[in-house]
Amino acid sequence: MRKLVFVFVLFTSFCFGQNINNYKAVIVPLKFDFIRTNNQYRLCTISKNNLINAGFIVFYANEIIPKEYNDRCELLYYDIVKESVFLATQFHIELKDCSGNLIYKSERGYTKEKDTELAYADALKKAFESVNSLHYKYDKNRVITSEVTLKNEMAPVVVSPVSNAIIEKSTSDLVYAQATQNGYQLVDASPKVVFVLYKTSRSDLYIATKGNSQGVFVQKDNQWFFEYYENEKLVSEKVVVKF
Questions:
Q1: Which runs of consecutive H residues, i.e. helices, occur in the chain?
Q2: All structural domains of the chain
Q3: Which of 147, 187, 238, 241 is such that its CA lies 20 to 30 A from the CA of 136?
Protein backbone atom coordinates (compact mmCIF):
# COMPACT_ATOMS: atom_id res chain seq x y z
CA MET A 1 0.00 0.00 0.00
CA ARG A 2 1.40 3.37 -0.99
CA LYS A 3 1.65 5.96 1.78
CA LEU A 4 2.28 9.68 1.91
CA VAL A 5 5.23 10.56 4.09
CA PHE A 6 6.32 14.10 4.87
CA VAL A 7 9.95 14.75 4.00
CA PHE A 8 11.68 17.62 5.74
CA VAL A 9 14.99 19.31 5.05
CA LEU A 10 16.87 20.08 8.26
CA PHE A 11 17.76 23.71 7.99
CA THR A 12 19.06 24.66 11.43
CA SER A 13 22.73 24.83 10.49
CA PHE A 14 21.84 26.79 7.37
CA CYS A 15 20.03 29.43 9.41
CA PHE A 16 23.12 30.04 11.55
CA GLY A 17 24.93 31.04 8.39
CA GLN A 18 22.43 33.74 7.47
CA ASN A 19 23.59 37.35 7.32
CA ILE A 20 21.62 39.93 9.29
CA ASN A 21 20.95 41.83 6.06
CA ASN A 22 18.92 38.84 4.83
CA TYR A 23 15.96 39.81 7.02
CA LYS A 24 13.24 42.37 6.27
CA ALA A 25 12.26 43.56 9.73
CA VAL A 26 12.48 42.97 13.48
CA ILE A 27 9.75 41.96 15.93
CA VAL A 28 10.08 43.44 19.43
CA PRO A 29 8.22 41.69 22.28
CA LEU A 30 6.20 43.62 24.85
CA LYS A 31 7.99 42.04 27.79
CA PHE A 32 11.38 40.55 28.60
CA ASP A 33 12.18 37.78 31.09
CA PHE A 34 13.70 40.09 33.71
CA ILE A 35 10.86 42.65 33.89
CA ARG A 36 7.43 42.19 35.46
CA THR A 37 5.13 44.21 33.20
CA ASN A 38 4.85 45.13 29.53
CA ASN A 39 7.29 47.86 28.50
CA GLN A 40 8.52 48.32 32.06
CA TYR A 41 11.21 51.03 32.24
CA ARG A 42 10.23 51.80 28.59
CA LEU A 43 12.61 49.07 27.43
CA CYS A 44 10.41 48.09 24.49
CA THR A 45 10.00 51.71 23.37
CA ILE A 46 13.72 52.40 23.70
CA SER A 47 14.53 49.17 21.84
CA LYS A 48 12.22 50.00 18.94
CA ASN A 49 13.60 53.51 18.60
CA ASN A 50 17.19 52.27 18.65
CA LEU A 51 16.46 49.59 16.06
CA ILE A 52 14.83 52.14 13.78
CA ASN A 53 17.86 54.41 14.19
CA ALA A 54 20.05 51.43 13.24
CA GLY A 55 18.14 51.11 9.95
CA PHE A 56 15.66 48.34 10.74
CA ILE A 57 11.93 48.23 10.08
CA VAL A 58 10.41 47.34 13.45
CA PHE A 59 7.07 46.05 14.71
CA TYR A 60 5.84 45.27 18.20
CA ALA A 61 4.73 41.67 18.71
CA ASN A 62 1.07 42.71 19.08
CA GLU A 63 0.98 44.87 15.94
CA ILE A 64 -0.91 43.92 12.81
CA ILE A 65 1.89 44.06 10.27
CA PRO A 66 1.58 44.69 6.51
CA LYS A 67 1.11 41.59 4.38
CA GLU A 68 4.53 42.02 2.72
CA TYR A 69 6.01 41.07 6.12
CA ASN A 70 3.72 38.08 6.74
CA ASP A 71 6.47 35.53 6.09
CA ARG A 72 7.75 35.13 9.64
CA CYS A 73 10.96 33.49 8.44
CA GLU A 74 11.95 36.75 6.75
CA LEU A 75 11.83 38.49 10.14
CA LEU A 76 14.17 38.68 13.12
CA TYR A 77 13.00 38.33 16.71
CA TYR A 78 14.54 40.68 19.26
CA ASP A 79 15.45 39.98 22.87
CA ILE A 80 17.38 41.65 25.69
CA VAL A 81 19.35 39.27 27.89
CA LYS A 82 20.28 40.49 31.35
CA GLU A 83 23.54 38.98 32.55
CA SER A 84 24.35 38.35 36.20
CA VAL A 85 27.06 40.70 37.44
CA PHE A 86 27.89 42.01 40.92
CA LEU A 87 26.65 45.53 41.78
CA ALA A 88 26.19 46.45 38.13
CA THR A 89 23.86 46.03 35.17
CA GLN A 90 24.93 44.20 32.03
CA PHE A 91 22.85 43.50 28.92
CA HIS A 92 23.37 42.00 25.53
CA ILE A 93 20.98 41.98 22.60
CA GLU A 94 20.01 38.87 20.63
CA LEU A 95 18.34 38.61 17.24
CA LYS A 96 16.94 35.19 16.34
CA ASP A 97 15.26 33.68 13.30
CA CYS A 98 11.81 32.09 13.07
CA SER A 99 13.13 28.79 14.44
CA GLY A 100 14.83 30.35 17.45
CA ASN A 101 18.35 30.12 16.00
CA LEU A 102 20.70 32.88 17.10
CA ILE A 103 21.56 35.10 14.14
CA TYR A 104 23.25 37.96 16.01
CA LYS A 105 24.50 38.66 19.53
CA SER A 106 25.63 42.17 20.43
CA GLU A 107 28.55 43.27 22.53
CA ARG A 108 27.76 43.70 26.22
CA GLY A 109 26.42 46.95 27.59
CA TYR A 110 27.71 47.55 31.13
CA THR A 111 27.00 50.22 33.75
CA LYS A 112 27.37 50.72 37.51
CA GLU A 113 24.49 53.20 37.66
CA LYS A 114 22.42 52.41 40.79
CA ASP A 115 19.03 53.72 39.68
CA THR A 116 17.33 50.81 37.90
CA GLU A 117 15.61 52.79 35.14
CA LEU A 118 18.74 54.82 34.35
CA ALA A 119 20.93 51.71 34.54
CA TYR A 120 18.74 49.77 32.13
CA ALA A 121 18.65 52.64 29.64
CA ASP A 122 22.43 53.14 29.85
CA ALA A 123 23.30 49.44 29.50
CA LEU A 124 20.93 49.09 26.56
CA LYS A 125 22.39 52.16 24.85
CA LYS A 126 25.89 50.71 25.15
CA ALA A 127 24.77 47.30 23.84
CA PHE A 128 23.29 49.07 20.81
CA GLU A 129 26.66 50.55 19.87
CA SER A 130 27.64 47.24 18.27
CA VAL A 131 24.22 46.94 16.59
CA ASN A 132 24.68 50.38 15.04
CA SER A 133 28.11 49.37 13.76
CA LEU A 134 26.48 46.63 11.65
CA HIS A 135 25.22 49.30 9.20
CA TYR A 136 22.20 47.11 8.51
CA LYS A 137 20.62 47.32 5.07
CA TYR A 138 18.10 44.79 3.80
CA ASP A 139 19.43 42.75 0.88
CA LYS A 140 16.64 41.84 -1.54
CA ASN A 141 18.91 39.32 -3.25
CA ARG A 142 18.99 37.14 -0.16
CA VAL A 143 19.07 33.35 0.01
CA ILE A 144 16.98 32.41 3.00
CA THR A 145 14.76 29.56 4.14
CA SER A 146 11.31 31.12 4.30
CA GLU A 147 7.87 29.67 4.94
CA VAL A 148 7.34 29.50 1.18
CA THR A 149 10.42 27.30 0.91
CA LEU A 150 9.30 25.27 3.89
CA LYS A 151 5.93 24.67 2.25
CA ASN A 152 7.70 23.25 -0.78
CA GLU A 153 10.00 21.15 1.39
CA MET A 154 7.01 19.82 3.31
CA ALA A 155 5.10 18.82 0.18
CA PRO A 156 4.14 15.16 0.43
CA VAL A 157 6.27 12.76 -1.55
CA VAL A 158 4.89 9.38 -2.59
CA VAL A 159 7.05 6.47 -1.42
CA SER A 160 6.35 2.75 -1.19
CA PRO A 161 7.30 1.46 2.25
CA VAL A 162 6.32 -2.05 3.29
CA SER A 163 3.25 -2.34 5.49
CA ASN A 164 5.22 -2.71 8.72
CA ALA A 165 7.65 0.16 7.99
CA ILE A 166 5.99 2.51 10.51
CA ILE A 167 6.91 1.89 14.13
CA GLU A 168 4.01 2.93 16.36
CA LYS A 169 4.58 4.15 19.90
CA SER A 170 2.42 5.81 22.52
CA THR A 171 3.28 8.31 25.25
CA SER A 172 0.85 7.81 28.12
CA ASP A 173 1.87 10.82 30.23
CA LEU A 174 -0.15 13.98 29.61
CA VAL A 175 1.84 16.98 28.44
CA TYR A 176 0.73 20.61 28.59
CA ALA A 177 1.21 23.21 25.85
CA GLN A 178 2.82 26.53 26.75
CA ALA A 179 2.83 29.19 24.06
CA THR A 180 6.20 30.51 22.85
CA GLN A 181 7.09 33.17 20.32
CA ASN A 182 7.32 30.66 17.49
CA GLY A 183 4.89 27.95 18.59
CA TYR A 184 4.67 25.89 21.78
CA GLN A 185 6.70 23.94 24.28
CA LEU A 186 5.08 20.84 25.74
CA VAL A 187 5.88 20.19 29.38
CA ASP A 188 5.13 17.29 31.71
CA ALA A 189 3.92 17.55 35.31
CA SER A 190 7.37 18.16 36.79
CA PRO A 191 7.41 20.57 34.70
CA LYS A 192 10.04 19.50 32.20
CA VAL A 193 10.10 20.50 28.53
CA VAL A 194 9.46 17.33 26.50
CA PHE A 195 8.72 18.72 23.02
CA VAL A 196 9.40 22.02 21.28
CA LEU A 197 6.98 22.88 18.46
CA TYR A 198 7.47 25.43 15.68
CA LYS A 199 4.51 26.82 13.73
CA THR A 200 3.99 26.11 10.05
CA SER A 201 1.34 27.43 7.67
CA ARG A 202 -1.03 24.72 8.95
CA SER A 203 -2.67 24.69 12.38
CA ASP A 204 -2.55 20.89 12.55
CA LEU A 205 1.15 20.55 11.71
CA TYR A 206 4.26 21.69 13.56
CA ILE A 207 7.97 21.17 13.07
CA ALA A 208 9.00 19.43 16.29
CA THR A 209 11.97 18.35 18.38
CA LYS A 210 12.17 15.90 21.27
CA GLY A 211 15.66 15.63 22.69
CA ASN A 212 17.88 14.79 19.72
CA SER A 213 14.97 13.66 17.55
CA GLN A 214 13.57 16.03 14.92
CA GLY A 215 10.37 15.52 13.00
CA VAL A 216 6.78 16.72 12.81
CA PHE A 217 3.93 17.02 15.31
CA VAL A 218 0.77 16.29 13.36
CA GLN A 219 -2.93 15.94 14.19
CA LYS A 220 -4.79 12.95 12.74
CA ASP A 221 -8.35 11.98 13.68
CA ASN A 222 -8.32 14.49 16.57
CA GLN A 223 -5.19 12.91 18.04
CA TRP A 224 -1.62 14.20 18.01
CA PHE A 225 1.42 12.26 16.82
CA PHE A 226 5.16 12.98 16.87
CA GLU A 227 6.61 11.45 13.71
CA TYR A 228 10.33 11.15 13.03
CA TYR A 229 12.91 8.81 11.53
CA GLU A 230 14.99 6.44 13.65
CA ASN A 231 17.48 4.07 11.99
CA GLU A 232 15.89 4.77 8.60
CA LYS A 233 12.42 3.81 9.89
CA LEU A 234 9.46 6.10 10.38
CA VAL A 235 8.32 6.26 14.01
CA SER A 236 4.83 7.54 14.85
CA GLU A 237 4.48 8.33 18.55
CA LYS A 238 1.00 9.14 19.88
CA VAL A 239 1.09 12.02 22.36
CA VAL A 240 -1.67 13.10 24.76
CA VAL A 241 -1.46 16.89 24.88
CA LYS A 242 -3.62 19.61 26.41
CA PHE A 243 -3.50 22.92 24.51
A1: 12-16, 43-53, 116-132, 147-153
A2: 12-132 (3.40.50), 161-242 (no CATH)
A3: 147
